[in-house]
Amino acid sequence: MLFSRRKLILGAGATGLVLTGGIWRVTRLPEAAIKPWMMDGPPPADMRLAAFRHAILAPNPHNRQPWLIRLIGTDEAEISCDLAKRLPETDPFDRQITIGFGTFLETARIAAAEFGIRMEVTPFPRGEPQPRLDARPVAHVRFVKDAVAPRDPLFAAIGKRHTNRLVYDFARPVAEADLAKLVSAPDGFTAIEARLAPLRQIAMDSIHIEQMTHRTHMESVNLMRIGHAEIDANPDGLALSGPMMEGLTLIGQLDRAQLADPSSTAFKSGLKMQAETYGSTPALFWIATPGNSRFDQLEAGRRYVRAQLQATLLGLAVHPMSQSLQEYPEVAQQFAAIHHLLATKPGERIQMFARTGYAEPVRPAARWPLEKHIIA
Question: Distance between CA 229 and CA 32 in Å, rounded?
Answer without folding.
Answer: 10
